[in-house]
Each structure stands twice: as C-alpha cells, then as structure tokens.
Amino acid sequence: xxxxxxxxxxxxxxxxxxxxxxxxxxxxxxxxxxxxxxxxxxxxxxxxxxxxxxxxxxxxxxxxxx
Length: 66
What we know:
The protein is of the alpha+beta class. Helix content is 36%, strand content 12%.
C-alpha cells in the first residue's frame, strides 16, 4: 500500500489533521493508523453511553495514558 500521508495516532490531533488534509487535498490518499484491538463488536464502543463506561478504567479499549 502506498499513501500520500501517513498519520500515526487517532487522538484529537491525528483525527483533526486527517480531516483537514482530506478537506484541503481532496485527491490525496490518507492513512490514519491507531493502536488497539478491533472493536466493531464491542457494545461499549458502539453505544453512546457505553463509551462513558470505558473512560475511568484501563481496559483493552482504553490505555489510560497519563
């Protein structure tokens, strides 16, 4: 795979950078890489209130980075 831009980390900075690049460079291919497991089937990730349950604890989905 080949991309014009590779952004490592999907935090607030990485996600907003990817969005801005997509707006300003519509023909560019952009890859946003994030660590962690595949979470498509995790109900805590897919339900709006479930996200609040992940925040205070260190789990597979929250690294609790300080």
